[in-house]
Design a protein that fits this description.
five-stranded mixed barrel; 4 helices; about 20% helix; 6 strands; alpha/beta; fumarase
Length: about 170
């Protein structure tokens, strides 16, 4: 992936690599684990979290529908995770002022992907493996290997925000 600092708000990219699904409850557990000094299920530094809860995997498929969920639900955890080294997030919708400020401060990136297109997005997933919090069902953390996953830079490392561009 291009260096995060070079990406600009509004830019569209195709990402190939590893992303981790994590929603509200997984975020709560990750933050608690960090604060208690426990080992995390994946290295947070340099990671990309996708706000997604994949549906059950149909027989013969790699993953079920895997569209983005509303990012604002993770806003209470995001500044802390960015400070810990999280590189980027993928979701849908605008972010709070605190998250926007943290993205700019730590020079991270917030991406959007296409909402309502979870079945289509599943076609970009080459591998999917649940790695933590199985008891959360669709909110478990799933490690995804993706190829040409479509992303739009919503907030870039300089704090430019497509939602502020109207």
């Amino acid at each position: 992936m291009k260096k995060l600092n070079s990406l600009k708000a509004g830019q569209q990219i195709l990402f190939s690599g590893i992303i981790y699904t994590a929603r509200d409850q997984a975020h709560k557990r990750i933050v608690a684990a960090i604060k208690m000094g426990k080992r995390l299920p994946f290295a947070l530094r340099g990671a990309i979290i996708y706000y997604c809860g994949p549906t059950r995997t149909p027989q013969g498929k790699i993953i079920g529908s895997c569209g983005p969920t509303t990012s604002a639900r993770m806003d209470e955890f995001t500044p802390f995770l960015l400070a810990q080294g999280l590189s980027a997030m993928i979701g849908k919708g605008n972010r709070s002022k605190e998250v926007k400020d943290a993205i700019k401060k730590y020079k991270r990136v917030y991406f959007l992907t296409y909402a309502g297109c979870g079945a289509l997005l599943s076609k970009y997933v080459l591998q999917a493996k649940t790695i933590a919090y199985r008891d959360l069902g669709p909110e478990a953390i799933v490690k995804l290997k993706v190829k040409d996953f479509p992303l739009i830079v919503a907030i870039d490392a300089k704090g430019r925000n497509i939602y502020d561009a109207h």
